[in-house]
Amino acid sequence: MSMLACSYSGYWISDLLNDNYILRTPQQVLAIIVGIILGLLIGFVVGGPVGRLTVNIFDELELAFHKASGINILFGFGGALAGLVAATFPSIALFRFGYPGSVASVVLFLLSGFIGARIGIIKRSELSVIFKVSPSFALSGESRAIILDTSVIIDGRIVDIARAGFLDGIMLIPRFVLSELQAIADSADALKRSRGRRGLDVLNAIQQLDNAGIEITDEDFPEIMNVDDKLTALAKKTGAPLATNDFNLNKVAVIQGVKILNINELAGALKPVVLPGEDMRINITRAGKEPEQGVGYLDDGTMVIVERGKKKIGSQVTVVATSVLQTPVGKMIFSELSEERPET
Fold first, then answer.
1. How does strand 169-174 pair with strand 212-217?
2. What is the pLDDT of residues 284-335, one digit of tens each?
3. C-alpha span between 336 and 296 (Å, rounded)
4. Taking the domain 274-337, which CATH number applies?
5. What share of the chain is helix, strand, coil (3-state, %, to 5)?
6. Coiled coil: which residue ranges (predicted)?
7. Which fold is adopted by the domain 145-269?
């Protein structure tokens, strides 16, 4: 393609020279032939790099579209279209200035389209509210919406999970959850006030992510007074999963058929698996409930109970896991001192 384009360019330049009578009739055919040959040679030289560059550009575009969510593509396209429309009238005036005006008009169109697309993607949450894009529409795209409750917002780990790419798309914040969070942030109690403000900071952090955004939904259930019951009803109506750390809400919602994303369960699933017989290095920090027991913790917070470890409080020791107990609140590892384990 590059060789054909360059050869045609050579022909066009030669023909332009002929139209201006720079060349005489015997020279015209030769000029056209020379122009075509030069165009082919230039195309042969630059065709490879240009072709590879073109392929790379299209590959990057394909990869970008593959990663982008449907809602981002929609608002990006809408923003680009709005930018092109906005550039139409200034471009009409620029065309009156001849060739420089035409070049400026093309540049204006490109910049306006790009800026409009970026604004559409960055401000998609606000635009979805203005144009009444429903939560069910967000659910029909490539990435699903997730309803966040107050506990998971204040917890804050949802931001790191989304930033790592494990969650993306729209995160639905019901207006009644936002009001509850605001009430906590305005509390007279210093601890509650700190937790509430942390939750608001978490929402701001989510809005800054490229792969996620926040949509405030005014969907409410006036006949339901309890916030947990409202969240369950909203999740059932929209079909969106509910992210929560509330143990009781988790149980009640699951009974009613709501899909739950529990951050604590996720954290537990990501803890390293410890099998009986494995060695561990821990610090024994306190005495256990049983006589002579010591208690230490792994880096992920898992409790390790050490038989006859009380005498090692304050020391770092090597222990051998003997059994692992799974409880509703996490894992407990029972172990004994490696130095006291009988050799086999």
1. parallel
2. 999 988 888 999 998 777 889 999 888 889 889 999 999 888 776 667 889 9
3. 12
4. 2.40.50.140
5. 60, 15, 25
6. none
7. Rossmann fold (3.40.50)
Portion of the chain with pLDDT greater than 70, in percent: 70
Question: Phi, psi (5° rounding) for residue 335?
Answer: -150, 175
Burial annotation 16-51 (CB, 10 A radius, 16+ → b, else e) = ebbeeeebeeeeeeebbeebbebbbebbeeebeeee
User: Token pair for residue 37?
Assistant: 């040959």
Domain borders along the chain are 1-131, 145-269, 274-337
Of all helices (H) and strands (E), which one includes residue 281? Answer: strand 279-287
**Joined tokens for residue 133:** 């894009």
Q: Which two tokens stand for residue 10?
A: 């050579």
pLDDT, tens only, 98-128 = 767 777 888 888 888 888 888 877 766 566 6
Q: Using alpha carbons only, what angle is made at residue 75 by residues 54 and 83, rounded to the nearest 5 degrees?
A: 75
Instruction: Single out the residue of 104, 128, 127, 178 nearest to residue 148, CA to CA.
Output: 178
